[in-house]
UniProtKB/TrEMBL annotation:
One Gene Ontology cellular component annotation held by this UniProt entry: periplasmic space
PANTHER family: EXTRACELLULAR SERINE-RICH PROTEIN (PTHR34883:SF15), SERINE-RICH PROTEIN, PUTATIVE-RELATED-RELATED (PTHR34883)
Keywords carried by this UniProt record: Electron transport, Periplasm, Signal, Transport
Name of this protein: Blue (type 1) copper domain-containing protein
Annotated InterPro entries: Amicyanin/Pseudoazurin (IPR002386), Cupredoxin (IPR008972), Ser-rich/MCO-related (IPR052953)
Biased composition (Polar residues): 179-195
Position of the signal peptide: 1-17
Gene3D superfamilies, per database record: Cupredoxins - blue copper proteins (2.60.40.420)
Subcellular location as annotated: Periplasm
UniProt region (Disordered), positions on chain: 126-201
Biased composition (Low complexity): 128-178
Amino acid sequence: MRSQLFVAASLSVLAVAQTTIKVDVGPGGQFVYEPNNVEAKVGDTVSFNIVDPIHTVTQAASIGTPCVQSGFTNPDGATTFDVKVNNTDPIYIYCLPHCALGMVMIINPKNPGDVDSFATVAKGGTLPSAPSSTSSSTPAPSSVSSTSAGTPVPSSPAASTSAPPSGPASGASASTPVNSSPADTGSGAAPTNTDSSGSSIAPSIIGSIGSLILAALL
């Protein structure tokens, strides 16, 4: 008796835990499932109310392959069709004659925008590309210089300093020619020549010329 009561109580709990979720197919002449996505637990039943029998409840394999049957479909002319949920994996559903119009739905979608992506691909669009593994928000540092853009890099002293002119020693202008003649003494006298012995020859010559002139006058 106790075992029978336990079994009855267990069945009652299971009946309460399992839920039937209603979905209308083509309500008001629209090419839609209403709602077009539902969350269902294991053991729940999604019951489709096919308002117009021209529509179907057909399973596809994935978002990327809509309009291609890969599983169940309702019998022709059926007005209701139930799908029992055995796990929480996504179940992709579309209408056979109206898939290209975006008439799709998902049971247990992975992401909030999956049903929109499913409809986009069904209508001939493409799935959004996956983000790159390299972050696009962080630019790679320049391998040339770590100086930030817009900041001029000062030139090296060697590049900006002119090479000193060759020739005269420090203090002399490079454009000043060197006079090869004897330096001016600063007294105003003409330079005097000297013989190899270093003695002056100018006074003796002047004295001889003076004696000749004096003799001629006498």
